[in-house]
Amino acid sequence: MKHTVIKDVLASRDFGQTFTVAGWVRTRRDSKGGFSFVELNDGSCFDNLQIVAPQELPNYEAEILKLYPGCSLTATGKLVESPAAGQAVELHADSITLFGACDPLKYPLSKGRISFERLREVAHLRPRTNTFGCVSRIRNCLAMATHKFFQSRGFYYFNAPIFTASDCEGAGEMFQVTTMDLNNMPKDPETGKVDFKQDFFGKPVNLTVSGQLEAETYACALGSVYTFGPTFRAEKSNTSRHLSEFWMIEPEIAFADLNDDADIAEDYLRALFNAVITECQDDLKFCDARIEKGLLERLTRLATAKFARITYDEAIEILSKNADAFEFKPYWGADLQSEHERYLAEKVFNGPVIVMNYPKEIKAFYMRANDDGKTVAAMDVLLPEVGEIIGGSQREERLDLLEGRIRELGMDPANYWWYLDLRRFGSVPHAGFGLGFERMVRFCTGMGNIRDVIPYPRAPREIEF
Length: 465
Ligand code: ATP
Ligand code: MN
Fold this sequence. Notes:
binds adenosine-5'-triphosphate; CATH 2.40.50.140; binds manganese (II) ion
């Protein structure tokens, strides 16, 4: 159906030209002068288009006076310079055709302000609210900016598999996948354990927690690649920062060390902040006014910020001097808690911080051993307000060291034969990182809960839609 999106109509100054628009009613107001004002939104942008409907319309009594929030319609009319404040243009309708009525007594979004908790229960309708319209458009902008950034740097978009037989982090928290009858699992007569040879893939299979290991194989052929896909973690923790299904962006770069990795992470983050600032002004203004005061200023500051870089040793030293400020006392060997990360970014450096070279005990098996024998070439990027946004590392490219580490951790090198092959055949230094996409959307919208920046959140006991 030929129509113009409201975003383009609002930007037009072709007064007198006829436009056809289509969307959902936000409000209707009837004037004494014999016409109604209908605020129409079609999702193309934050603002509504004001449609002026005169009582001469044949369906004025029967339909226009029964337009309520949520009704869908198409309208054709002339673009007119608006005499009233609040909008530059309005549409004087020659005809309005109702698509679908919407009973105000039953429509869940009829009332004014509705809590985010309640909106989660009507997740299929919440994109029609101002807030979720903003979040959706900002999410889209960040996704496109991600592709633009990596494509402009010569990275190839790589699709990692979702089903996997390997556990990237080597640390539980995985969803198992099977087609076997859970009430009647075939058992191996000798061991008495479930016989996965009879399962669909012939072995235990999980949903992926990260596409990194597979991305490494393609980086070690194409040079630089990035994933952008869903990952799954069965974390029981019910926090405002964790989802069971979330999207991750994982660049992997051949012929790169930890400093190169950090450079790309910095450039990428600045590119994201710049993209939302330039492309989502209206949405950000709303978020700034209604969701988080100071959001625009914070993003603008970060778009040009220089990132501080410190070692884990230095971080522990700084934190130890202020141990009284923390619930968890910092000490060498312990992972940084959220309160430590925020303290570094907010109080000490007043901006983003990259912490490098963590103790090997608290990091994954594939991270490159440093010469000190105690630390690995890992980095976390910390932002004010949220703490960790990116985790990355230079990967261990030396076969003997990697195999040794896998054994040390009680894992079986045989399960990683193809990953180890990269180190057997033309091994190269390489590095990469992972950014949790929803954490970024949350940061750029000011939304308090990560469940409200993904269309259909998956979390413990949350899967209605
Ligand atoms: P955290 O300590 O916050 O649980 P992590 O150390 O488990 O994070 P990584 O394994 O390094 O995280 O994953 C890379 C990135 O993915 C993180 O920096 C974060 O942005 C994001 N992330 C991790 N787990 C989740 C989750 N459950 N939901 C949403 N994003 C996540
Ligand atoms: Mn985690």
